[in-house]
Amino acid sequence: MPRYVAFLRGVSPMNAKMTELKHSFEAAGFTDVKTVLTSGNVVFSARAKSEMALARQAEAAMAKQLSRTFYTIVRPVSVLRDLVEANPYAAFDLPAKAKRVVTFLGEPYQGKLSLPTETEGVHILSMNGREVFTAYVPNPRGPVFMVLIEKLFGRHVTTRTWETVKKCATA
User: Fold this and answer.
1) Cα(34)–Cα(44) distance, integer angstroms
2) Residue (of 36, 72, 71, 78) closest to 168 by Cα position
3) What pLDDT, on a 0 to 100 scale, did the predictor assign at position 52?
4) Does the pTM exceed 0.85?
5) How much is the pLDDT for 13?
6) Which phi and psi angles does 59 have, rounded to 5°?
7) Secondary structure in 3-state letters for the chain
8) What is the per-residue pLDDT for 44?
9) Residue 148 and residue 162: Cα distance in Å, rounded?
10) In whole angstroms, what is the distance from residue 25 CA to residue 146 CA?
11) What is the pLDDT of residue 36?
12) In this structure, are residues 124 and 148 in contact, taking their beta carbons and an 8 Å threshold?
């Protein structure tokens, strides 16, 4: 059975317990469910379906089991492994303190964007249709990259550090 990762938007230890998320995914009929870190990453096995169908199935189970839901984006583990292997950051000379992040889009981006681009220390380096690869150096103003990401790509996205993506690809 294929393995998938569900990336849930807006999850933190303050608003969701990972054991409860795990149980809601099991109630949805998914198997071999495990959470990765405490930021809403759920790895699971399921019969092959579209990523969108799996995401809606997970959201329905969360609504029923948790009485709330988190916007969910699903990717096959194989896709994440390919991303990690390709290492989209290798082609760029980034500062040593740069944080690498991947933004997962719910739908392929349809706009025009000249990349790489830089605004306020945020470098949007590349994209492959449904993933956006960004790097930024942390500053006292907080995560300004999220404002730029949402301005360009909307709110139906979720972002993870490159390290989290690598952990999910091998979970």
Assistant:
1) 7
2) 36
3) 96
4) yes
5) 85
6) -65, -40
7) CCEEEEEECCCCCCCCCHHHHHHHHHHCCCEEEEEECCCCEEEEECCCCCHHHHHHHHHHHHHHHHCCCCCEEEEEHHHHHHHHHHCCCCCCCCCCCCEEEEEEECCCCCCCCCCCEEECCEEEEEECCCEEEEEECCCCCCCHHHHHHHHHHCCCEEEEEHHHHHHHHCC
8) 98
9) 18
10) 28
11) 96
12) yes
**Amino acid identity, position 21:** L
Omega of the bond leading into 143 within 30 degrees of 0 (cis)? no
Which phi and psi (to 5°) does residue 98 adopt? Answer: -65, 135
The sign one gets for the Cα dihedral 95, 79, 21, 72 is positive
pLDDT at residue number 144: 75
Q: CA 29, CA 11: separation in Å to the nearest integer?
A: 21
Count of other CB atoms within 10 angstroms of residue 140: 4
Tokens at residue 94, please?
Answer: 């980034």
pLDDT tens digits, one per residue of 101-128: 999 999 888 888 888 988 878 889 999 8
Tokens of 38: 């405490």
Give the residue carrying structure tokens 């699971």.
Answer: 44
pLDDT beneath 50: ranges in the chain: none
85: which 2 tokens? 């292997």
Residue 171 CA to residue 150 CA, distance in Å, equals: 28
